[in-house]
Specification:
Mean pLDDT: 94
Number of helices: 3
Number of strands: 10
Structural class: alpha+beta
Strand order of the largest sheet: 1-4-6-9-7
CATH superfamily: Inorganic pyrophosphatase
CATH class: Alpha Beta
Distance between the termini: 31 Å
Length: 202
């Protein structure tokens, strides 16, 4: 008896074994690593695909939204070209922040996210963009289609979090938030990251 096409004999790697979604780049799959309830920075281990504890959050702020990445994306030369003050891509999957009305208090979940914009961040010379999206079937956010549809206070929380989440007391920061961009630019960044992934991993 043959297994169904969607059956995985072993757990798929969330970066390489999942896909970006049939409607990418407009609506994408997002693998969530962190929630607003987490005081510890979690990251997917690139070898095993399991969540690894990276570090306790260095400041008192926590991520204002769900935070993870889009599968089968990679930030290399094409992403860097869309971030003119950067020198290279960061070599990681493309990060995504997903806004929801109802709290989701656990990571390692997959959801469909509707892209509305992004944050152009440069970290130590590396393009480290953060796509901004809303949970696709969240009725509270059903009219949100661009960053202009999000309260400025929430965008400022995102900006502040990423500007400060790597701060170490007594040491200078080399993280720069260049701009918050609209949906049109965000779609270009996702397409670039999908192409960078195909070039790197086939």
């Amino acid at each position: 008896m043959a297994f169904p096409k969607t059956f995985y004999r072993w757990r798929p790697h969330p970066w390489h074994g999942l896909d970006a979604g049939e409607e990418a780049p407009r609506v994408v799959n997002a693998y969530i690593e962190m929630t607003p309830f987490d005081a510890v920075k979690y990251e997917v281990d690139k070898t095993t695909g399991y969540l690894r504890v990276d570090r306790p959050q260095l400041t008192s702020s926590t991520t204002p939204t769900l935070y993870g990445f889009i599968p089968q994306t990679y930030c290399a030369s094409r992403v860097q070209e869309l971030s003119p003050t950067s020198q290279r891509g960061d070599g990681d999957p493309l990060d995504i922040c997903v806004i929801t009305e109802r709290p989701i208090n656990r990571g390692e979940v997959i959801l469909r996210a509707r892209v509305i914009g992004g944050i152009q961040m440069v970290d130590n010379g590396e393009a480290d963009d953060k796509i901004i999206a809303v949970l696709d079937n969240d009725q509270f956010w059903k009219t949100a289609h661009d960053v202009a549809d999000v309260p400025p206070a929430l965008l400022e929380r995102l900006r502040h979090y990423f500007a400060t989440y790597k701060l170490v007391p007594g040491q200078p920061s080399d993280v720069h938030i260049e701009q918050i961009y609209d949906r049109t630019h965000a779609l270009r960044v996702i397409e670039a990251a999908l192409e960078d992934y195909t070039e790197e991993y086939g």
